[in-house]
Batch of 2 targets.
Target 1
Amino acid sequence: MDERVARELLGQARSAAQQRLRDLGASFEDIVEASRDSNGDDEHDSEGVTVAATRAQVAALIAADRRKIEEIERATQSLNAGTYGRCVKCGTRIPDRRLEARPATPWCVDCARG
Ligand SMILES: [Zn+2]
């Protein structure tokens, strides 16, 4: 994988994740706002459950995006250190095709499966 291409791909992946994080943060606030408006007695009715479930779902997506951004940061550091494109587990060179699809992945296909 060409270093310039790798930087480009990581930059794009980071922008996309950050944008999604902003969108999720906005909808999370909407949900919190909506649940604050509802009466406390309604906490256990179906609508309250739906709000709680949606909130948990959005929180999980936010956590996943934060992890993704950390992964991208680590990949960028490994690019600077000259170790980018090698599996952190077994040291195998990760194929370009995989890096093009998942530029921040620290693992080869086999290690990602295991
Ligand atoms: Zn591996």
Target 2
Amino acid sequence: MSDWLGLGGQRVLVAGAGGIGSALAEAFAEAGARVVVADVNPAGLASLDPRVHPLEVDLSTTAGCDHAIARAAAELGGLDVLVHAVGVNHRVPILDTSDADWDRMITVNLTSAFRLGRAAGKLMVAAGYGRQVYCSSVSSLLAHPDHGPYAASKGGLNQLIRVMAREWAADGVTVNAVAPGYVETDLTRGHLDKPGVREHYTSLIPAGRLGTTGDLTGPALFLASRQAAFVTGHVLYVDGGRTLV
Ligand SMILES: NC(=O)c1ccc[n+]([C@@H]2O[C@H](COP(=O)([O-])OP(=O)(O)OC[C@H]3O[C@@H](n4cnc5c(N)ncnc54)[C@H](O)[C@@H]3O)[C@@H](O)[C@H]2O)c1
């Protein structure tokens, strides 16, 4: 297979072994990269592609994030690519949102991005090369009801990556995001299975269908590659046109 993206031998940490993280990890492995996947859930890690190295760690703490970066760098002999694909969502109106809900979504979705990005950024800036790709969301832009903390975490993420991108641009480190629309994974399945919900969301998407995890792999691998050397600070909406309407 030709390695047009130049991902062969790249040292990759994917944070998150869920639907999107596991699909991306498999695509990186398929492209010849060496991959560590970090997640708090042992069941998710157990079902990963066998070419991928699993790392069980809670990424809701500074110690957990620092440990994940250090362990991945030790296992791989350095770190070229960080992919952030952890996330949680609890859909409730703002008036019913508890402090605990707020804290959990901001910590897992946004603070872990800051902590992992910072720890990986130290290695990448020192090495003079790095690619960071984060999973934002169409919720970073649209005001979906019942998405207060989730939308705030993704809007914050969009701005965080822009500042990281600017600070590290002269050091060969790019920072970008992919922003999916609805993709059926453990994060969304329960909601999509409610009566009429899947049909309603599908009707809002100009492409006429929900996304798949496979829709994310091309855009994410491109942003993680040497081919994207002059692309930084972008949020690439991978949403079948959802944010156009
Ligand atoms: N699925 C979608 O429709 C969709 C749409 C837009 C954005 N996203 C974003 O894409 C990313 C991946 O989502 P997904 O659909 O694969 O979800 P998922 O639920 O399948 O996977 C999320 C993973 O994060 C892990 N995780 C949660 N808390 C953690 C913690 N404290 N430490 C370590 N790991 C933890 C979970 O164990 C799970 O494996 C998330 O950031 C999500 O917000 C998803």
